[in-house]
Amino acid sequence: IRKACRVPMRLSYPSPMSRAFIRRASTSAARALQRELDVHKLYLLTSLRVDARTSRGASNAGRGSDEIIAEAHGMTHEARQGAVNARLCDEVVGLARALVSGTATTSAARDDDIDAMRARAIRGVGFHCYVDKSGVPHKESGDGLFVRGRVKAGGVVATYPGLVYVGTAMKYMKNYPRVGADNDYLIVRSDGSVIDAKPWGRGCLSATNEWPGEPIYLTDGEKRA
To answer: What's the pTM?
Structure first.
């Protein structure tokens, strides 16, 4: 007579650390995909802008959108990203040159320097930015960034200045790990880096002109070219 025996079965579930790793891996993959899509779109936009600029006054009308799309598909992500970086840098340099051209140096002229800078921006790049009350019907809408003038596709409108924390360098942020507890100026890039644009002046004590605290040196793993 055979006796039936019960074999205990054990179901294996991912540990908390494994689940965290899976979430992080899936998030990293999604961010990488989004970054490639963003770079691809930026390549198309900046290509249209470059073609419009180079063909201005020329007999040809520049390449068509189909040709630019085919060119983008035939390139690697790294090649597209390199081209986008170079074009955006040129745009930022052009904005800076337009703003500093003919900058006043006397204290009397600096009083209306904002209006003069706006006028130079209109002449140089065709638009300028300004801060005004948001038109969103909400009590916490606050202020918004607006553009006066005309911005062409593929052009740089404004920059987001701030300190960039990459990887494990985020542990140096204030209130880490709850870095957003009292900071509404944080944004996360597609590569996971955090940009802190909270106003902090010059970053030194005005009385002693010294850095308020010991200097921070990044490790080799925290440095990124």
So the answer is: 0.61
